[in-house]
Every structure is written in C-alpha cells, then in structure tokens.
Design a protein that fits this description.
The protein has 374 residues and is an alpha/beta fold. Helices cover 43% and strands 13% of the residues. Strands 1-3-4-5-7-8-9-10 form an eight-stranded parallel beta barrel, surrounded by four helices. It has a two-stranded antiparallel ribbon with strand order 2-6. The longest helix is centred in the middle third of the chain and has 18 residues. The radius of gyration is 20 Å and the shape is globular.
C-alpha cells in the first residue's frame, strides 16, 4: 500500500533544498526523491532554462520526436459526488445527459473520421448509471476501430478493471485531485469520492488487473503545487517498483472555468506548471506526460519537445457534444479550441511528428495470450 509522508515532512524536504542541490540534481543519472524536491523548490527557479534543456534532452532520448494525439469522448455528466471545483458536481444546475451505446459509438466514430485512433472515455462518477457492463459493451463495439481505448471514470475494483481489460480497455486514468488530505476533505463535500484512501489505492488496483497503462495526476490549484509534484513523484516511484510492467503517465490539469464558478485556492502560473513538468521528466525519464486542451494553444505550442509526450486535440467536454454542438452541460471550458489538423500542424512546425495511434492494441493481444497461458 502506498503511504505518503506527512505534509510537514514534504515541506521539510523541499525547504531544505539549496541552489547547489539543484545543480547536482541536473547532473545525476538517477535522480532521487531529494533531487526531485530540489527541482521543485524555489531554489530551482533560476535554473528553469537549464531544466527545460535537460528535460528536452531526456524526452528526445526516450520518446524520439513523436507526440501522441488523443481526444476524450464524454459519455455522461451524471455524478453522485459534490466536488466544489467540478462542473459535473451533483449540486450544479446543469443539463444532465448520458449517452446510449449507439450515441457513444457515434461520438467515437466522429473522432475516428477526424483521424483519431486513441480515445479517452470519460464520465462523471455515477456507477449505477455508467456500469461495468455498459463499458464492456461499448468497448467491444470500439476496440477494433481504435488503436487504444482508455477510461477516466469512477474508481473500480481490481476484478472490474480485469473485466474491462479483457473487453478491450487498455488504460485507466484516475487523478487523486490533491494529495493533501485536508484540502481533499475541504473540496469533496459528499459522495463516494470523499474516501481519500480508496481513491489513492485505485492506480494500484488498475495496474494489478493487467492494464497496460495507468495515468495519475493532480488538479492544480487545490493545494501547494510543489508538494503535489513531490507526492506525484513518490507515487510514481512506488508504482514503478510494484508494477514495473505497467506503463505510467502523469497529467497536469489546471482548474478551468466551469459551472459553480469555483476559483483556484492556490495560484499556479504557466511558469510553475513548466517547472513541475520539467522536474518530473528529469526525475522519471520514462513517464508519459500529458498536456491537455485545458491549456491555451500558445502555452501548449511552446512546450512541444520540452517535456510532454501526449496532447489532446479538438476536445469537447459535453456528453454528445461532437455530434450535437448545441448540447450544454460541460465539465469545464476548453483552453485550446483548435482541431486535430491545426494541433498536428503546430507540432510538425516544431519538427516533431504527431502520432495518431500507439501500440496498445498489439500489447492487448499479447496480454490475452499471457492470461490464457496462465
């Protein structure tokens, strides 16, 4: 079981780092947690250009000049949680809608026709409505049409994740939102999501089930971003040690305008976000780093080649919104409004190759053979 140090201990780790520690962290081949703390510390701010250069070097070595492109398919905005930062929060008066299997397939195929081969199936957390059976049936409809199917839905048991893997789901994204227990309690007022520990243990359950990839992250703006970055690093290290066959990604969502008009509790600037991404790239050279359309196009274009390995494009956060743009009930407002072709062109102009598929489909077949042999 993953156990976090206390907030006091995390603060001490970061506060104790000096400029010399930052310089050493940039030179070491195998950065430690204390090296990560140095790269996240205020002492590292003057080293930001050097961190960017080191991050770009590592990214090129491990991922080449490719950036994977994906898009979300929102299945439902029904939710049983009252989370004060989320547009889907049960207390918000928005138009609620859940897609039928036919509607969900139609939404996914709209993206397929636009050139996407990797889709992320997203929903609010309402397990009675969005059941495992629903996801299994949808996955069976889509798995032969897409290179990879990922989900970002309510936390599930190891057994349920195993069922979804067998049906064609290859990846699970589940964000802790914040690793600060006090902040977590303050923003999750009611619903199953109030259980901090159950959510914290979810990435391990997903990895244990056989999923080829597990994504973690925090919602930046709820707590001290430096401590969130340190907690992400600790969580990554633990997952690597215990589930070394599982691919890992980290997302960096910042709070965006949404129903409820929640404002960030802690400010996180683009400079802060850049330092966080560079630090985690240097700390874990093999982790996939995701930069979504929450961010403005200017910032996303500027980060091409420096750290991120995965970009979303042409996103819509309203269930059914691709086929029916007049639908309301979005989770949050998009920052980068460009379609896939414009995003891909921006990536090419920087000398990189936008990849619209990955190899999870091949891995899935291998996984099935391994399970059968077992």
């Amino acid at each position: 079981m993953f156990v976090l140090p206390t907030i006091k201990e995390q603060k001490s780790m970061i506060a104790g780092r000096s400029v010399n520690n930052v310089g050493q962290a940039l030179k070491t081949e195998h950065p430690s947690i204390l090296d990560l703390a140095a790269l996240l510390s205020p002492a590292a701010e003057e080293y930001l250009p050097a961190m960017a250069a080191r991050s770009a070097e590592i990214t090129a070595q491990r991922f080449g000049r490719t950036i994977q492109i994906y898009a979300p398919v929102y299945l439902s905005n029904l939710c049983s949680n009252n989370c004060i930062y989320c547009g889907f929060s049960s207390d918000n008066k928005i138009e609620r809608h859940m897609l039928s299997l036919d509607e969900a397939e139609q939404e996914a195929m709209i993206l397929h026709k636009r050139g996407f081969n990797h889709v992320l199936l997203v929903s609010g957390e309402a397990s009675k409505a969005l059941s495992v059976d629903y996801l299994v049936r949808l996955a069976k409809r889509l798995k032969d049409k897409f290179a990879a199917l990922s989900i970002e839905v309510q936390p599930m048991s190891t057994e349920d994740y195993g069922t979804l893997f067998k049906a064609g789901i290859t990846s699970v994204a589940v964000y802790q939102e914040t690793y600060d227990r006090r902040a977590y309690k303050d923003v999750h007022l009611s619903g199953p999501k109030r259980d901090f520990d159950y959510r914290l243990e979810t990435p391990a359950r997903a990895a244990e089930s056989g999923m080829r990839e597990v994504g973690i992250g925090t919602l930046l703006g709820l707590a001290d971003w430096r401590l969130e970055g340190l907690a992400l690093g600790l969580h990554l290290k633990w997952l690597r040690k215990n589930f070394w066959r599982t691919g890992l990604t980290v997302s960096f969502p910042r709070i965006r305008p949404a129903a409820g008009d929640f404002q960030p509790i802690v400010g996180v600037s683009e400079k802060d976000l850049s330092q966080l991404m560079f630090a985690l790239r240097i700390f874990d050279p093999d982790v996939g780093l995701v930069l979504s359309t929450r961010e403005e196009s200017r910032f996303r274009d500027g980060m091409i080649g420096l750290a991120p390995t995965r970009y979303s494009a042409g996103s819509c956060t309203v269930p059914g919104g691709y086929g029916n743009p007049s639908y309301s009930g979005e989770q949050f407002a998009i920052g980068d409004q460009r379609g896939i072709d414009e995003v891909c062109q921006a990536i090419r102009e920087k000398g990189f190759d936008p990849v619209r598929k990955d190899w999870d489909a091949a891995f899935q077949q291998t996984g099935k053979k391994e399970q059968k042999a077992a």
